[in-house]
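We modelled the chain as a single entity of 249 amino acids. Its sequence is:
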Amino acid sequence: MRLKKADGRLWEIDFIRGIAIILMIAFHFIYDLNHYKIIYYKLWTGPFAIAASVTASIFVVLVGVSLTIAFNKRKKHVDHSQIYAQFIKRGVKLFGLGLIITLISWIIIPERFVIFGILHCIGVCIILSIPFLRFVKLNLILGSMIVIGGLLLRLMTFDFNYLIPLGFLPPKYFTIDYFPLLPWFGVVLLGIAFGHMLYPDGKRCFHFRDRSSLVLSEKICFIGRHSLLIYFAHQPVLVGIIMVFMFFQ
């Protein structure tokens, strides 16, 4: 049985997002195996940590690209205020889902609970991106500056904790999911700029062979189209698999 092809979607965006989700699941599975002391692997240094950062960067860049595509597709047919209202609604929804993650993680692992994870970050970034949706050069410059500033902040610690969402970390702070606005809002702005360059008017300006009908591509695109649901469901599934494994050991 073949998966239904999504109408009007750019298959390569779903495909790349699907790849990022698969890599994220692999990283989280190894993290869980470490947490339950089934394996011992240094996650936060070396090639694995670099791969995790690259995967997260791809995912967040696609947020900006997707915002641009949606904006460019609708701007000639729908009042801009309606588009902005939809983006605000989307951002608030994602931030609200992030708060659910905060609550669950606080109950399960209070010493490392999520204060400002990827859903919080994407939700806020969508709303903050609204004034920048029309720009290319500005987003390239400002986005690069925010990314550089955020990377520099990682080298510092501060004696307060009320700016954790921005990237100002107190000493010895650690959480299982952390995506501060500095540098990640900059990554979203870069994605918006790339979206304008690659998809003016919401259509691709380059040509390549359409591989979306291949069975493997269809399945990966399906994962990309349902990334939010998979994000919520994958950890309980992974932990369940590990619990079963440990039970029969």
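As a brief sanity check on the tokenised model: The two ends are 37 Å apart (CA to CA). Residues 79-206 form one domain.
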